[in-house]
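anyone seen this seq b4? input:
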Amino acid sequence: QTPWSHVEALGVGWAMPLSAPQGFARVIESVAEWDDEKRNAVFMAARQYAREVAQDEGVLQANRRLFMDRLREQ
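predicted toks r here
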């Protein structure tokens, strides 16, 4: 239930269901095996992706709508 489900395909993170803790364990084990070069490359890609998302007006508007909808429900 997240708009970030594509981050794994981009190589910048993971979106995993909370109902599958074994998936979290696998990712942690995998990342623990990365060397410094791989870790830095993923960090740099994730940082660049975050910058792009933070400046995307469509994403910002969608997030505003999401929060405003939730506030109206209360």
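The mean pLDDT is 91. The CA atoms of residues 36 and 59 lie 32 Å apart. kinda curious what u guys think
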